[in-house]
Request: fold
Amino acid sequence: MERTVQESMKQLIIGEALPNIPWEEKPAGCQDVVWRSKKNPIIPRDLLRTSNSIFNSAVVPFQGKFAGVFRCDDRRRRMQIHSGRSDDGINWVIKEEPINFICADPEIAEFTYGRYDPRVCWIEDRYYVTWCNGYKGYPTIGLAYTYDFEEFHQLENAFLPFNRNGVLFPRKIKGKYAMLSRPSDNGHTPFGDIFYSESPDLCYWGKHRYVMGATTGWQATKIGAGPTPIETTEGWLLIYHGVLTSCNGFLYSAGAALLDLDEPWKVIHRTSSYIISPQTIYENVGDVPNVVFPCAALCDAATGRIAIYYGAADTVTCLAFAQVEELIDFIKEDAKK
Ligand code: BMA
Reply:
């Protein structure tokens, strides 16, 4: 694919500049469309003295720096989500206490076995957090908002159980809030496709549409949305995870797709190859081996740089990089395979 200089300077990401995005150039000779940080894992499992593991976590730009919500499993192996701050997106200070959600109705705050796999999304005037919420023993999509990463206000669960991987779009689409999710079961779900739903108020959800499903190879068993979709001139750029069942169990990789901007349940292109799969020691070895699980992506509209945050082996948090133009070209070309 050859582009003129003028074409290659074109801004593809519809959004704001983020000059302080964490970034490392692609290593010379690297053939991959996504490359890992040399600093990986950026968050060790024991950053908190109470943590068994810190992974599958979400970060956003915040007041010129960065903030996030982190999945921290404690040493009793309870799954909880904690807030954190960082000056550079790489070195994080995470609160030792889990988020103490403020709820209009205390029943909403009740959960059994845990909260996990958070995503964070800025919409209009505040940050929204979605996560897999163990509501009375049933996994479903928890939802909350915060202005400051200090106080978090929990709203009604978005859907009936069983559901996971709830990922909001960063703006209303045709006047409605929009969310991707993955209907599932009560265990380690051996199936799963991505659906789209919309809501006028973040309480009542409907117009559920099928987006895309498990296919073959690295995404043969199930798929689930990853980071908040990135708006581009070519469609919503969605990074998602896909699962293959090997003789040794589940193996989690990630791929990417472009969704229609106005009707995001319509898939324009989708990779048939993964863009990153578990291949390093910190992805292959840990509490759950062979997992890469992206939950967040920072992007700089001015340069097209993307920094992807992912959990590795259900143990640590890692960072990888991509260039939007190269990634979109890859999706288009690979979709033809
Ligand atoms: C999924 C979720 C993720 C986890 C993955 C691999 O079902 O529980 O949190 O990373 O399994 O264990």
Remarks:
- Residues 1-7 have pLDDT under 50 and may be disordered.
- The two ends are 16 Å apart (CA to CA).
- The chain has one domain: 4-334.
